[in-house]
Amino acid sequence: MASVAAMELDDLQSGVGSPRGQSPKIKVLKMHPEAQLPKYAHTGVYGDLAADVYAVADVAIAAGATVAVPTGIAMEFPSTHGALVEDRSGLAVRGVTTLAGVIDPGYRGELKVVVTNLSAATVEVKAGERIAQLRIVQRIEAQFEEVAELDEAARGSAGFGSTGA
Question: Annotated region Disordered: where (predicted)?
């Protein structure tokens, strides 16, 4: 009989599951015939942290413009998980960055990726092109407590740029 650690490693190497075998199942509805499901480019032990998400239409993003790029998919997350939409490095080097990237577990509408073109030229995104990355995150509902003061910490209130530029 294989050990639990060996079975977990086998799961990771095959690209299935998390270290504890608790990969969430996420239902994906294709709302457009050309839509693609999110895909991890690299799986297994050293796999990607986020899955690629694809544009379902050609979109021209003018310099300085912000647009919502359609993906043609909707998702159903378990109540315990959601997702963060993040930049793809290939678009980031072209000056395109993502905005408003939180997908709550109760959202059932089309995933649209809000992007801003920070470059001086129009950037063309083609249908089928990877537009962003989808990082699956566990939902944690924190309890916020008002206090009169905070405990001391080495960093204190040192903020932006406090560790050097």
Answer: 1-24
Sign of CA dihedral 91, 93, 96, 102: positive
Q: Is residue 63 a contact partner of residue 121, using CB atoms and an 8 Å limit?
A: yes
Q: What is the mean pLDDT of residues 136-148?
A: 96
The domain limits of the chain are: 25-138
Q: How many residues does the chain have?
A: 165
The residue whose two tokens read 């910490």 is 153
Task: State the Rg of the chain over Cα.
Answer: 20
pLDDT in tens, 36-94: 999 999 999 999 999 999 999 999 999 999 999 999 999 999 999 999 999 999 999 99
> From residue 140, how far is each of 24, 36, 137 by CA, in Å?
15, 29, 9
Asked if residue 56 lies in contact with residue 38, where contact means CB atoms within 8 angstroms, the answer is no
**89 Cβ neighbours under 8 A, 6+ residues apart:** none
Residue by residue, DSSP assigns 66-83 as EEEEEEEEEEE--TTEEE
Q: How far apart are CA 81 and CA 24, in angstroms?
A: 8
Dist CA 81 CA 138 (whole Å): 4
The sign of the torsion formed by the CA atoms of 127, 128, 129, 131 equals positive
